[in-house]
Amino acid sequence: FFQAEDGIRDQPRSRGLGDVQKRQGKGKLQKMFEKFRNIRMHQLKVQKELDVMEKVDRSSKEFRDLLRTKFIETARKYYGVPYAKKFHKPGSELRKSKLFLDCCGLIRQIVYDLRKDFGFVLQRYNQAYQHDMLPVKLKFEEMKPGDLIFYSGTYLDKRCIRQKHDLVHVEIYIGCLLYTSPSPR
Prior knowledge:
Blueprint: E1 2-4, E2 7-9, H1 17-24, H2 26-53, H3 61-77, H4 103-113, H5 115-118, H6 127-133, E3 148-152, E4 167-172
Antiparallel strand pairs: 1-2, 3-4
Helix pairs in contact: 1-2
């Protein structure tokens, strides 16, 4: 609404997209469309890759073992990637990082990198979502490198939101390393 000399009048009705272009400027609308187009083209490319890979037999032991190896190798690429920007001091090298991965973000990124092999991508949800996608529970003795370990816990800070299944962390099992304890002196 705006005030006029003869009283209050309604704002003139929009004439559609043309008005939006006039208000935002032609360049901004084109940039928004280009961004939308790039995202959509990427989504279509990923879907096409996944459609081609549907024909791969993922049930063979050889394929699964190879995928476990690729999963761990891909995870190692991300060693040293900072957890979250907010945990690093302004101006520090880690805060300047272009990529930050929390625990479930790391798993999601690895699966995305190997999407052709997996035949799917994980959605942007937390470790509870990832847990629900993996219905198999294993005993520690049954675990193989590449399996995921989910941790549950209760937040003591009441401001923290309780997670589904009380899951608070996810890790990749890479195998047992045997250490001997030092001999007493």
